[in-house]
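User: What would this chain look like folded?
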Amino acid sequence: MSAVPDSVGPAEPSIHQLRLFLLLSEELHFGRAAARLHMTQSALSRQIQDLERRLGVALFSRDSRTVFLTDAGRALTVEARATVEAMGQLRVRADQWARTLAGHVVVGTIGAEAAMPYTHAILEHLHARHPRITVEIRTLNFTEHLAQLLSGDIDIAFLRPPVPPTIELLELATEPRVACLPATDPLANRAEVSLADLTDRAFVDVPPEVPRIWWDFWAVDPRPDGTRVRYGPVVSDMEGLLLAVARGEGMCFLPAAARDLFPRPGVRYLDVVDLSPSVSALGWLAQHRHRPGVQAMRETAAAAMAAPGWERGPSR
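Assistant: Here's the prediction, encoded as structure tokens.
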């Protein structure tokens, strides 16, 4: 059994030690916890022992085969988790202000938005108008693109609505949506289909962390006749989605640009005669609209759209 530490240690626990404690409290096995942390069992044990000395309480009870949380350990997991989460939030906020003070803006993109003409036009205008602003582009998956905007990990994003109400939008372009079907589907050789033709097809789904308002639009759920969509495999990004379609596990709807940007073996794209179009937009948190990087991007996008040659219709 673990002995109660002799006295309170001279130093406060580190955030690193609290993270180790929380992970070990989940695994209750030094070997598995050490493997997840990519460290040795002995190094993990030393860190936990030092944490216990600093706190003045035993967190775990150990014998040759098992590890248990003590009563103190169970009670302190709540505070430890809150402390780690608070430190993470502090880091996010500090990074946001560091970007503001340094003239740095983090721009998120999803799918093929980084390749779209309007994205290039806006970034070129930004460089011309604000040459001292540095730009970091992050390509994000289905789960990340809205989550990171809402958390402040990114400042602004090229995305496809709909979005939660706390996000403001500047619409950039529109284009049709197309059906993405397995090449083996009986409809795959047709030039066009209707939503009714696709009623019985399973639709590829996304993780529960993705706001449902977003995927309901892309799945057209419910359909115009009130039919609810039957969902198939869950995917997190575009390549996973296209693979699921190619394997015949489901279908999806995508912007028409996917025909050129995402050709894949085993996948066919079809026009849908009664499907509403997709909107491309620049999005930012409403509460961040006046931050220097966000404001520069907003104003630059508006100026780019007013320049000769900009097309508000289908994406080029």
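The chain has three domains: 15-93, 103-173+279-306, 177-276. If you want, I can go into more detail on any region.
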